[in-house]
Write a structure and sequence with these properties.
Blueprint lengths: L1 H31 L4 H4 E3 L5 E3 H17 L5 E3 L14 E9 L1 H5 L6 E8 L2 E9 L4 E6 L3 E6 L5 E4 L9 E6 L5 H9 L2 E7 L3 H7 L5 E4 L5 H13 L3 E4 L17 E4 L9
Parallel strand pairs: 3-4, 10-11
Antiparallel strand pairs: 1-2, 4-5, 5-6, 6-7, 7-8, 8-9, 12-14, 13-14
Helix pairs in contact: 1-3, 6-7
Length: about 270
């Protein structure tokens, strides 16, 4: 019964969310194409940037989710009051209105809009829209993973690839390439490294364009949940560095270090 209910919520979210993501993309691009660093960007207490696009998309998505799913709590990056919700069991949503704000404000296209549905601490649905790249990625435990063109509206299924363990392709954070990540790359049979921002790193794995994404640095759950769900739906995994599955609804919604990858990938820690 519980699985059936989750499948129904997932189907509704993917159906409704497609239109929401199109509208969120329009909001993002309206600000992206004319952004002024002095006028449009402020900084939060942790020195991370905040734009009007963050606030507008946050308000739009929060209102839509609350209207359609009034009984499911919504946690968003930009609403600090939502960070006190108790969501260790049952359903909840995670929203990151602009993931990769540094990429956004510097007119680099690899920022995303993220919505995830969590159930009992696991991501079961993810929507990741990359407005500047003209793509939206969707994934659920029940329907697999797809990518949609914002221009044509056409979707196609995606899945992870079979890795070549003698020549792995690693995707890493454009803004947070830590010494530990560099050491990991040097310790493994890596043929090439691709830099990308935001949750697109998960989506590159999901689309069969990379094999590993090591993250040895700070992230928050709203940064990862939607991409995690897409990758899982495409056949991949996200694990803590000790091999345990990455779970959500943690204290302060902070993630430990993790590795995302595809089945059959062979790697070792530095």
């Amino acid at each position: 019964m519980q699985q059936s209910a989750t499948a129904d919520i997932a189907a509704m979210l993917c159906e409704e969310g497609g239109g929401w993501m199109d509208q969120a993309a329009e909001i993002a691009m309206r600000h992206y194409e004319g952004i002024d660093l002095e006028r449009d960007v402020e900084f939060k207490s942790d020195d991370s940037p905040l734009t009007q696009a963050d606030l507008e998309i946050d308000s739009f998505l929060f209102d839509r989710l609350s209207e359609i799913f009034p009984d499911i709590p919504v946690v968003t990056e930009e609403r600090s009051q939502s960070h006190d919700l108790s969501v260790e069991s049952g359903y909840f949503f995670l929203i990151d209105p602009i993931d990769g704000t540094k990429e956004f404000i510097h007119n680099r296209g690899d920022f995303t809009v993220n919505i995830a549905l969590l159930h009992d601490r696991e991501p079961v649905v993810g929507l990741v829209c990359a407005p500047a790249l003209g793509k939206c990625f969707y994934g659920s435990d029940f329907a697999g993973a797809s990518v949609k063109s914002l221009e044509t509206g056409k979707s196609e299924r995606i899945s992870v690839r079979q890795p070549d363990n003698n020549g792995l392709l690693v995707v890493a954070s454009r803004s947070h390439l830590s010494p530990e990540t560099k050491a990991f790359i040097e310790a493994n049979s890596v043929a090439d490294t691709r830099n990308a921002g935001s949750s697109l790193k998960f989506c590159l794995l999901a689309a069969g364009e990379a094999d590993l994404y090591p993250r040895f640095g700070p992230t928050m759950e709203w940064d990862t949940a939607a991409g995690h769900a897409v990758l899982k739906a495409a056949g991949g995994f996200v694990r803590e560095i000790d091999g345990q599955p990455l779970l959500y609804a943690k204290k302060d919604f902070r993630n430990p270090w993790f590795i995302a990858g595809v089945p059959g990938v062979d790697y070792r820690m530095a």
